[in-house]
Amino acid sequence: MTKPSTVSGSQQSKSLPVKHRQNKPSFFAAWRKPSILPGFGLTLGFSVAYLSLLILIPLMVLMLHAVGVGPARFWQLATDPRLVSALQVSFFSAILAAVINVVFGGIVAWVLVRYRFPGRRLVDAMVDLPFALPTAVAGIALTALYAPKGWIGAWLMPLDIRIAFTQAGIVVALVFIGLPFVVRTIQPVIEEISREQEEAAATLGASRFQTVFRVLLPGLLPAILTGFSLAFARAVGEYGSVIFIAGNRPYSTEIAPLLIFIKLEEFDYSAATVLATVMMLISFVMLLIVNLIQTRTRRRYGYGS
């Protein structure tokens, strides 16, 4: 009986075919994660080219035109009192309208998901009307309602409350056009929340206040922040629905988009470019802060990265 020959591990590895050897992955193979869909390089290149043509290149051209006026001229135009006032009106109104939409848009989304009542589908469809309605039509309708002799404005005049041709009218217009962004962002998340979580919280002795703020809101907070970002971004650049109800008085109710249009009509392209650049930078910083808060919230509560 012959004794079986023993082969060392190194000799076995040498005897294996080349295709069975475990080669060390290259840098690019280790960096790229496996994907279900093929065509990573093609889709990445198409995405970068598409974003560059539609977003990056126009913004870069805008920045180059703004820088071309020179630092001294740029600072002079950026600190112009009329420009600063228009920026204050636009951003303050946009932030206030986004906050109002988050509160009442969340309530509307909750009612549409959790309750069944006659006319629910009609109300659900009405939420999307600001998407389809032309902004100029919305501005005219709101002005007719809130003007001193309008249907609602006539009731507010004896109380010395003015909506049309004031900054309050700007906020009303921005709330109108921003509501669908909040409702449609929060609504799908509410649909995914199980009622068992609320029942479990109630079983453990939690009050309704604790259930809302310690069980439901943590799960809704990323969607709320996303809705706020969308509503704010939509409101800060709104033009058509605001100019009819604002009154457009300099240093009072004049918004930044309208001032840009006025500067273009006056052939003052430098001022228009600087104003647009300042608006873009402020909006970018604010949206970046909101996105960072959203990312931190997701990691804190452990439902996403």
Automatic annotation (TrEMBL):
Keywords: Membrane, Sulfate transport, Transmembrane, Transmembrane helix, Transport. Pfam families: BPD_transp_1. It is found in: Cell membrane. Gene3D superfamilies: MetI-like (1.10.3720.10). Its main location: membrane. Residues 1-21 are annotated as: Disordered. This is Sulfate transport system permease protein CysT. It comes from Pseudochrobactrum kiredjianiae.
